[in-house]
From TrEMBL, chain A:
Belongs to the binding-protein-dependent transport system permease family. Keywords: Cell membrane, Membrane, Transmembrane, Transmembrane helix, Transport. Pfam families: BPD_transp_1 (PF00528), BPD_transp_1_N (PF19300). The chain crosses the membrane at residues 5-26, 105-126, 138-159, 174-193, 233-257, 277-302. The keyword Manganese does not apply. CDD domains: TM_PBP2. It comes from Paenibacillus oryzae. The keyword RNA-binding does not apply. One of its GO terms (cellular component) is plasma membrane. It is a multi-pass membrane protein. NCBIfam families: Opp1B. This is Nickel ABC transporter permease subunit NikB. InterPro entries: BPD_transp_1_N, CntB, MetI-like, MetI-like_sf.
UniProtKB/TrEMBL annotation, chain B:
InterPro entries: AAA+_ATPase, ABC_Ni/Peptide_Import, ABC_transporter-like_ATP-bd, ABC_transporter-like_CS, P-loop_NTPase. It comes from Paenibacillus oryzae. One of its GO terms (cellular component) is plasma membrane. One of its GO terms (molecular function) is ATP hydrolysis activity. Its main location: membrane. Residues 6-251 form the ABC transporter domain. This is Nickel import ATP-binding protein NikD. Pfam families: ABC_tran (PF00005). It is a peripheral membrane protein. Keywords: ATP-binding, Cell membrane, Membrane, Nucleotide-binding, Transport.
Amino acid sequence: MKRYVLGKVVFAIPLLIIITFLAFGLNHLSPVEPAEAVLHAQGVPEITKELIAETREKLGMNDPFLFRYGSWLLDCLRLDFGSSYVTGLPVWSQLGPAFLNTLKLTLVSMAAIVGLSIALGVGSALREGRLLDKGIRGAAFLLTSMPPYWLATLMIWYFSVKLDLLPTSGMDAWQSYILPVAIITISYAGIYFRVIRSSMLGNLNEDYVLYARANGLLELLVTKHILRNSLQVAVSVFGMAIPVILGSTVVVENLFAWPGLGSLSVRAILSRDYPVIQAYVLILAVTFVFFNTLSDIVNAAMNPKARMDR
Amino acid sequence: MKDLVVSKLRIWDSRSGAALVEDSSFTVKAGKCLAIVGESGSGKSLTCRAIMRLNKAGLRQSGDIWLGDIKLTALTEKEIRRIRGTKLCLILQNGMRAFDPSSTIGSSVRETLAWHYGWSRSEMIGKMAKAMTAVKLDDYLRILNSYPHQLSGGMLQRMMIALAIVLEPEVVIADEPTTALDTVSQFEVLQQFALLRERLGCTMVFVSHDLGCVKKLADEVLIMKNGVIVEKGAASDIFHAPRHDYTRYLVTAKTSVNQHFRRLMGGDSFVFH
Ligand SMILES: Nc1ncnc2c1ncn2[C@@H]1O[C@H](COP(=O)(O)OP(=O)(O)O)[C@@H](O)[C@H]1O
Ligand SMILES: [Mg+2]
């Protein structure tokens, strides 16, 4: 097991290097001259050739590519992502708090998604074809087919405006979490419970279930075995869901004015604020690799075969 | 020891209404071995599971099944659960898939024994060790600590037999226990079944699609085709004077396979005497 974990972590390193390289290279893929983008972002009225040359010199853009990549990478390790072209403030001073806010939203949602998916998936699998199963699948189909922004608007109108129970926006108290978390949870749990359900059904047909029952084991114990094997699939799916949700909170964050990465990244993209975009891409990618590695490790801890084969 | 009596068993698919096993009646005398033989899809597994009342929820069954004076088909779910494992033991075809892949063999086995008998850990290991040695699983500690994928199909098959030895059931139902194995392991497992009978004196239902396999073990043979019993009788009659065309076909098919095998092995025949 130790070797397996070590292998996974070591494998993540080249992956991270490639990712940082791509994030840094982004700047150079853009058709717009970076120095010009800086001047645009700062709202300079007239952009002359001399001004561009001067800016390039000032930002160190004339140094060789690899040299700049190297020093950028070293800076990144110290969470120094440069300064925003727009505000001139250090990128991390904006991105750090925003990242934390989004991470909080994501993790709370994730807990709700995991709980709900398991409950619904197990419930519907054990009652396959019966009323409960049909009800859950029907409701999930209905809710996941509604666009989130529409559902969110509906819920804001009902719970915040009509009943005046919950705040409409912001991130002031724990109540602020309820609506955004509900929206994210509905759209993901409606999909993920199906993973659990089908995995449970697959396991239900396995011989080991028949054999356990033939040995007279209590249905509760049999279900425990089925659940344990079904969750192995789910763990990787859930592990991968965290970065996906992290990167897709844009809609919800903008609807609820959540001060997170989603809102920040949209603003940065619109104003071509490259250092912020770079840092955003980098942080998402690193989180992706982190949770991917973590879910592999958790999966291996649960699945003896995966642990020993690789 | 008690007779196992199956009377007018009918199994059908509740959705389509299609009958899968039709009017099936037979008796296995206490301590005897009945072989159920038939090609794949003839309803052998459904019959086995019907006895244990373990068919899928979508399937229905009617008819009566008795174990001595216990009417299995009239028991509550809780009562039949107490009978499963203690009085009725099922042994499956694919040992590889019969154990939870995420648990060690030992923990799966312990779970069953603890539930039925509440033995302590060392008691269980003691009893398992004895039974496993009897089925030639000598390295029992290593095996108990292994996961299913680390063992061979033949070993896991013998593991199920060892568990049956410890559980000491009145009836052992073996659903094609030799089908997934190569010829050599088949031979060994068949020997183990013979020993199991000697040891427990249990009643046995032994399913196979290969008539040749059951020659040594069976006292009676029951031939199934498309969910219907086409012939049943004493093993010697079935082998020497088959009445039904399908049985004759199975007997000759078995002989020709055996001849082929003999030619491959270069002479001596591979049959049980
Ligand atoms: N759960 C089920 N639902 C519907 N049909 C089934 C089910 N299980 C088995 N059958 C059908 O019943 C027939 C007999 O199956 P089975 O008893 O497994 O055959 P075998 O003799 O090979 O063990 C097959 O034709 C199979 O398609
Ligand atoms: Mg079968």
